[in-house]
Fold this sequence. Notes:
Oligomer: heterodimer
Order of helices and strands of chain A: HHHEHEEEEHEHEEEEH
Strand order of the largest sheet of chain B: 1-2-3
Family (chain B): Belongs to the TFIIB family.
Number of helices of chain B: 21
Subcellular location (chain B): Nucleus
Distance between the termini of chain B: 56 Å
Keywords (chain B): Activator, Metal-binding, Nucleus, Repeat, Transcription, Transcription regulation, Zinc, Zinc-finger
CATH architecture of the domain at 131-216 in chain A: 2-Layer Sandwich
Domain TFIIB-type (chain B): 5-38
Organism (chain B): Sarcophilus harrisii (Tasmanian devil)
Structural class of chain B: mainly alpha
Largest sheet of chain A: 10 strands, antiparallel
Mean pLDDT of chain A: 74
Amino acid sequence: MGRKLHCKGQGAMTPGIPIFSPMMPYGTGLTPQPVQSTSSLSILEEQQRQQQQQQQQQQQQAAQQSASQQATQGTSGQTPQLFHSQTLTTAPLPGTTPLYPSPMTPMTPITPATPASESSGIVPQLQNIVSTVNLGCKLDLKTIALRARNAEYNPKRFAAVIMRIREPRTTALIFSSGKMVCTGAKSEEQSRLAARKYARVVQKLGFPAKFLDFKIQNMVGSCDVKFPIRLEGLVLTHQQFSSYEPELFPGLIYRMIKPRIVLLIFVSGKVVLTGAKVRAEIYEAFENIYPILKGFRKTT
Amino acid sequence: MSGGGRSRCPDCGCAELVEDSHYAQSQLVCADCGCVVSEGLLTTTFADEGHLQEVTYSRSTGESEQVSRSQQRGLRRVRDLCRVLQLPSTFEDTAVSYYQRAFQHPGLHAARLQKKEVLVGCCVLVTCRQHNWPLTMGTICALLYANLELFSGTYLQIVKVLGLDVPALSLADLVKTYCSSFKLFQASPSVSVKFVEDKEKMVSRTLQLVELASETWLVTGRHPVPVITAAAYLAWRSLQPGGRLTCSLSRFCKLAGVDLPHPAYLRVQELLDILLRMAGQLAWLRILNLDKQTVVKHIGDLLQHRCILLRQAFRDEAEEEEGDEQQQEEGEEAGSSTLEMPEKKRPASSPPPLLPPCMLRPPKRPCPTPADSRVTGEEDISDSEIEQYLRTPREIKDFQRAQAASQAGTSAPITS
């Protein structure tokens, strides 16, 4: 942590010549990591075999390997993508022996599969799902508001009925055209169940409601990486994706291209992911961002 | 007024048009009835102006050549704002070009006047940021009498739409500019001699304190100005603690002639906490049992040795991950410096981690872990569950009666 400032007196209104390198504001010393090439499948396999308790030792290799991911981050996060879909779906790959010694850590005892060190071990939790469905018939909102207990309708404020049910705890906006928006569910299945319950309520109120074109429009997830993040450094190295304006909002807005997700990253290490249409996009986005965030963990 | 194409006479509909000229003026005359179809086109318009018909301004070529009045006004505002801020002339041209580019976009072209006003400020801000001129959004909003929310929305929109690369606010330059605006460098009727301070010393100490704050996570995610205010306050007090220890933050801001940002109180406390911890690492200060007032006297010393003190005072969590052996090495290394000989004899309580304040505070409410519900989405929905959401006929009647009564109640005073 060397001293970074050499103060020269300059006029107040003429900061013309930047005394401090504009690219390095306070306290962001980034040590670029050596880039190592990863061969695709062999490493994926062996890491699936390693024990979770060994994660600390493998943080080292993960940090080095993450540099290669970091290098490819701008274009496509393909390596983590490939890897992650494997962990999610099936267990051992055909034709591989479980006792695959790792060249990286010769001291690692081999035990059956648990999430590997490549992945963060943290799973984002879904917080909100927004879905839409078409009930397929015109609705009379006044009647619905009159005959349903859980409905509110204020046409001067908003042109839809706001209906809520307790289980799953959700809110729906029901429009006179028959389209409905359902928000607040914590999983895709819950959202579908809730939408069906709303449709059933509308049916019981006397309308010929159907359940057409159910579609999930947006999913929001959140998680905590449990270490502080130097947002100023992150915005420097990932300028084309990030937007960090502390005068406006305390978090950094990271627009990932593949998958197309927006992440809100805060200094406390909490990350909010939004804009996904399927759950896998959220997981993939987090696996893409985790190595980048780990790179900003050290302060020097 | 419509007529057909130029090929037909509007009067008799004849297709035979002859190019004839009446002295110097060229005319297009119908061969049959002799009516003058068009003469001497003076203006260039879109293809079918024909027959001296009226053409709306938006369809004529005049519109694309001229700059619209609203855009002209906006460009004038940009130049005015640059002059008020005393920016170099090159900034003006850049800001004007950004405004012109932004104006092409349909979303901003058709925006409300209020938004176009704010757009002026956004263009100037982007220009200043790109030249590392420290200008805060608060300043621009104050000059334009604009709402910060509208400003932030427009600013983010324009950065995205124009694909601009805007560097971060340069904190060091902001410190210098902000501190130079204080009115503490000369004695005046409101500022007595004991409060006057040398500008160079004050600016340099404030810079050091701001750098300390940014190393200890007090700057990330927070608005920069309150941190600078807090640092300037502490720096000013520490340069002459004799007469200034009793001066409060609000009094300091009044003397300096700047607004007091509310978060500055918290930042002062946080900075003092960090300084107290650092002071605990210096043997000759530990015996003094410093508190938040008295530590100000020693800020100079603490800043001089801040690198080492920080490393000792706080455990760096990231480095712990490297392995246990390295952590022990850390402790040894820190203890080897001459200042810290007595350190090794300290009790075994480990130093607190260096974390942003939001991570150090206990969580406000426990995060509920969601129940692992096996919902498939296709379950049967029982009738009774749905019935609970429907009103009984009795309830409906009651509700309607209540509604009618309330409406009668509200309408009665109007009619009477």
